[in-house]
Amino acid sequence: MTRRSIQEYAAALRQRYQEATKKQKGALLDEFCRTTGYHRKAAIRLLRGTPAKAVSRRGPRRTFGPEVAWALKGLWEASDHICSKRLKPFLPELLASLERHDELALEPQLREQVLRVSPSTIDRLLKPFRMPSQRRPHTQSQACLSIQGQVPVRTFGEWKNVAPGSLQADLVAHCGESTLGFYLNTLVAVDVRTGWTSLQPIWGKGQQRVGSGVHKIRQELPFALRELHTDNGGEFLNGLLFSWCQREEVRFTRGRPYKKNDQAYVEQKNFSVVRRLVGYDRYCTKEAYLQMQHLYQLVGLYTNFFQPISKLLVKERQGPKVRKTYDQAQTPYRRLLASQVLDPATRQSLEQLYTRLNPVKLRQRIYEARRVLWRMARKADGSLLWAEPAEEPKSRRVPEGTSMQLAHLSTLSSGGPRQYGNSSADAVPMLSVTLSLDALRPPPLAFR
């Protein structure tokens, strides 16, 4: 018998069973059990029509309602979807910044709940808003073996207690699905001590272009460049960059071949900053180069001033498991201030810049610049990738979606062109980047 037929049979017998005598009930139960195969006690409960006991939810009662979830969603979007372990310690600073720029107005009770929420609860409340991911091709040019032999190897275990100014650098190729032909690259440089991130678009992948990008990054840093660490690609391990590091007294090291963990800091930023923002499409035009340059000016400010990072303190093995302990998440800007390497003028300039920056407006400008850049994506044959420019690609990892205005949460709670290189693809001048950190740059040095 099916479960439905058993229920119908029980419904037909229920009235007779409830009105029957004890002896008659016994006979009805015998018949019901033989017919259905039910245990006698289960048959009694079914014929009595006793409702099942409501199972109470185990654990403590939920104290954070949907208004807290929506407030956290807005803050999570304003912080560019960082994880809960980084978002939790950053909430007080982020809230203060948004309130200072009139982007957010929460009632005192809701504000207290948002600041009290734990990382695990943040994950639970934001689960409905999260989305899935993807990956891409590999490119690396052959290094000069004579130079490679002169550059010392530095492994992942040799980065403890380094001073600010120790940079890891790498190239991210914007080649789409094919590495054939000309395409743009992004030079990513990360300070290991503070997490300060610098981005430069590179016109092609020539030694002269990459070397010029490294020099520009050095000019834009608010601290001195002491060390430079790269992979084994020929765009880095060449006589041009090697002699420049020797001349400028910058220690030059490399990782082991096929061991990406030796430059783990910059490899992480390749995805979390560049791939996650720009994507995996092909860019190969002058317009895309200039737009990428504009985008990275905004991204540098947002990443360094409003993206907290956690650093590994201790890693210990407990049986089959490895327990990792991290420090409290802080932005690269806060870590740089705490390092005490800035002179008073530079420190004051950074503090004034931070006070002027509005994270919500800055993020909106990043999304607008990214939307323009996406429309410039090309196929390998040079044709436009997206036929309809008004519609954004659906394959993006982090779609912009509906840009939620944080103010709405209150209703829930009440210089000139510079030319480098002379290859056939060098029709575009390498323009100097004008960042908000111009006052912090040292005098320009000629890169030869």
Key terms:
9 strands, 43% helix, 448 residues, Nucleotidyltransferase, domain 5, 16 helices, single chain, alpha/beta, 3 domains, disordered C terminus, 5-stranded mixed sheet, two-stranded antiparallel sheet
3D structure, described in words:
With 448 residues, the chain is an alpha/beta fold. The protein has three domains: 3-48; 66-129, no CATH class; 145-414 and 416-440, Ribonuclease H-like superfamily/Ribonuclease H (Nucleotidyltransferase, domain 5, 2-Layer Sandwich). The chain contains 16 helices and nine strands. The strands form three sheets. The chain has a five-stranded mixed β-sheet, with helices on both faces. Helix 1 packs antiparallel against helix 2 (22-36). The model is unreliable at 389-448 (pLDDT under 50).
- CATH level-4 homologous superfamily of the largest domain: Ribonuclease H-like superfamily/Ribonuclease H
What level of helicity do the residues show? 40-55%
The amount of beta strand, in percent, is 5-15%
Counted by DSSP, the helix tally is 16
- For the secondary structure, the number of strands is 9
Rough shape?
Answer: elongated
The CATH architecture category of the largest domain equals 2-Layer Sandwich
Give, in spatial order, the strands making up the sheet with the most strands. 3-2-1-4-5
Instruction: Tell me the distance between the termini.
Output: 88 Å
